[in-house]
Design goal:
Blueprint: E1 2-6, E2 9-14, E3 17-23, E4 39-42, E5 47-49, E6 57-62, H1 69-80, H2 83-86, E7 90-96, H3 100-110, E8 116-118, H4 123-127, E9 142-145, E10 151-155, H5 163-173
Parallel strand pairs: 6-7, 7-8
Antiparallel strand pairs: 1-2, 2-3, 4-5, 4-8, 6-9, 9-10
Length: about 180
C-alpha cells in the first residue's frame, strides 16, 4: 500500500482500492480572516452566537479540559483578575469541548463571573482549528475578534497564571476602547 495526498486528504492506495483515512485540518486561521460563526451554550444558562455579538470586540479563549491544572489556573485568573478586562468594551468567554454540565460545575469551582462555553460536538473547535483529527481536546489558543467579525489577533502561547493581565494588555495593544 502507498500513501498519497489527494484533495487535502491522506489516502491509502492498494490494488484497485482507495480509502480516505483522515482529513487534514482546514487551513489555519490568521489575522484578518473572518471569525467562524458559533452558537454555544454557556455555563450561565445562556446561548451565545457570534452573529449576535456583531459590533462588539470579542475574546474567545479555548482551553483543553475542565478541572485540569492549567485550565483551572487560566479560568481562575480570569475570575480573580477579571477587573483588568472589565475596563475594556469587550465580551469575553472561555470555551472547551466539555459538556455544559461539566463547564457549569467548573465555572462554579473557579468562581467564574463570565460564561464558559461548551462545544461537546467540537464543531466550533474544529472551525477555529483548535482541534483536528489527531487532537481531540482544544489547543489553548485565544482569538481576539473585532466588531466586524474579523480576527484581530491569535495568541497561541498562553501563560495561565497571569492570563487576565495578558489579555488586558493585548486588548490595549489592539486599541480596544475602554468602557465609559
Amino acid at each position: 500500500m502507498r500513501a498519497l495526498w489527494i484533495g487535502g486528504a491522506l489516502a491509502l492506495v492498494g490494488v484497485g482500492t482507495m480509502a480516505v483515512v483522515r482529513h487534514l485540518p482546514a487551513a489555519e486561521l490568521k489575522v484578518g480572516d473572518p471569525a467562524p460563526a458559533f452558537e454555544l451554550a454557556g455555563s450561565d444558562g445562556e446561548t451565545y452566537k457570534l452573529e449576535e455579538l456583531a459590533g462588539e470586540h470579542v475574546v474567545l479563549a479555548w482551553f483543553p479540559k475542565a478541572f485540569t491544572p492549567g485550565c483551572t489556573a487560566e479560568c481562575t485568573s480570569l475570575a480573580r483578575d477579571g477587573d483588568a478586562l472589565k475596563q475594556y468594551d469587550v465580551a469575553y468567554f472561555t470555551a472547551s469541548c466539555d459538556t455544559v454540565e461539566q463547564n457549569t460545575k467548573f465555572a462554579e469551582s473557579v468562581g467564574a463571573d463570565y460564561p464558559i462555553l461548551s462545544d461537546p460536538q467540537a464543531e466550533a473547535a474544529a472551525a477555529y482549528g483548535v482541534i483536528d483529527g489527531s487532537r481531540k481536546v482544544p489547543r489553548r489558543w485565544t482569538f481576539y475578534i473585532g466588531p466586524e467579525g474579523k480576527i484581530l489577533h491569535i495568541d497561541r502561547e498562553v501563560d495561565t497564571t497571569k492570563y487576565a493581565f495578558d489579555v488586558a494588555e493585548r486588548l490595549a495593544e489592539l486599541g480596544v476602547p475602554k468602557r465609559k
